[in-house]
């Protein structure tokens, strides 16, 4: 937590907003321990007194402008919710970048459109490179796992998680495509489609409608890819396990017949 000595006149802070979630503001006076309010000025020019009584306390401090849009969240001076959201927003809107590192974790924003950043020329650019030397990308994470597997001859795991509609399945497809190409099996680049299409019956039964995805999988997937001694893909399989059984409870009735789609309860 930031020390109260940093809350001086001119300091940038983040205050809650009912529409924008967080908005930036500037302190118009120094904070003194015991003050119940601080005078701030919002970016639109409005001045207001912000209460600093518990449990909310003092608002989160803003990061220096020089750190804005950084490709690694751990490099931020202040790492809290508004700082993370703002940095991701800047990278997405100003830099057209959907990927950001948070240490060894890759944060991805789903642009809900096709982007020209997954071609073989991009794969070639990331092949053999360290994560620190390249801009954040799903291929960089895949390269790190692939190279560690080859060098240490040990199994590696990549965990892809996120809410419904966040792009987990697509990320898994691009990861497998990377492995196929760098393993010298460009003709097998459709391996990701074959693996993910291995059990369509289970998907038809277990998928559910959510507020963000009309066909959201209710299954967790464990995809296992086998590599030969030369690093080429020699096999793959996928195991599924049903998640959130409490949300898959009934079938929608429409036009006097039961549809094959299972919906989520509310």
From TrEMBL:
UniProt keyword ATP-binding, yes or no: yes
A GO MF label: actin filament binding
Keyword line: Actin-binding, ATP-binding, Motor protein, Myosin, Nucleotide-binding
One cellular component (GO) term of this entry: cytoplasm
Gene Ontology terms: biological process: actin filament organization; system development
InterPro entries assigned to the protein according to its UniProt record, in alphabetical order: Kinesin_motor_dom_sf (IPR036961), Myosin_head_motor_dom-like (IPR001609), P-loop_NTPase (IPR027417)
PANTHER family named in the record: MYOSIN, UNCONVENTIONAL MYOSIN-VB ISOFORM X2
Pfam families: Myosin_head
Protein family (similarity comment): Belongs to the TRAFAC class myosin-kinesin ATPase superfamily. Myosin family.
Coiled coil location: none
Limits of the Myosin motor domain: 68-266
Protein name according to UniProt: Methyl-CpG binding domain protein 3b
Residues binding ATP, per UniProt: 162-169
């Amino acid at each position: 937590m930031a020390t109260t000595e940093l809350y001086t006149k001119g300091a940038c802070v983040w205050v809650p907003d009912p529409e924008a979630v967080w908005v930036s503001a500037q302190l118009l006076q120094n904070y003194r321990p015991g003050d119940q309010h601080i005078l701030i000025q919002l970016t639109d020019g409005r001045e207001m007194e912000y209460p600093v009584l518990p449990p909310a306390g003092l608002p989160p401090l803003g990061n220096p402008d020089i750190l804005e849009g950084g490709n690694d969240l751990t490099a931020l001076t202040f790492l809290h919710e508004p700082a993370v959201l703002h940095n991701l927003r800047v990278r997405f809107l100003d830099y057209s970048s959907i990927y950001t590192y948070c240490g060894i974790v890759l944060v991805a924003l789903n642009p809900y459109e096709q982007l020209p950043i997954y071609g073989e020329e991009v794969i070639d650019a990331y092949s053999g490179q360290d994560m620190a030397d390249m801009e954040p990308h799903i291929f960089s994470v895949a390269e790190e796992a692939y190279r560690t597997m080859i060098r240490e001859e040990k199994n590696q795991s990549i965990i892809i998680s996120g809410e419904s509609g966040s792009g987990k399945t697509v990320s898994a497809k691009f990861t497998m495509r990377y492995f196929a190409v760098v393993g010298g099996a460009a003709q097998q680049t459709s391996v990701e489609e074959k693996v993910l299409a291995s059990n369509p019956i289970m998907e038809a039964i277990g998928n559910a409608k959510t507020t963000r995805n009309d066909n959201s999988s209710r299954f967790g997937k464990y995809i296992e890819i086998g590599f030969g001694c030369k690093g080429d893909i020699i096999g793959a399989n996928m195991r599924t396990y049903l998640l959130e059984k409490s949300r898959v409870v009934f079938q929608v009735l429409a036009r006097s017949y039961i549809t094959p789609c299972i919906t989520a309860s509310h």
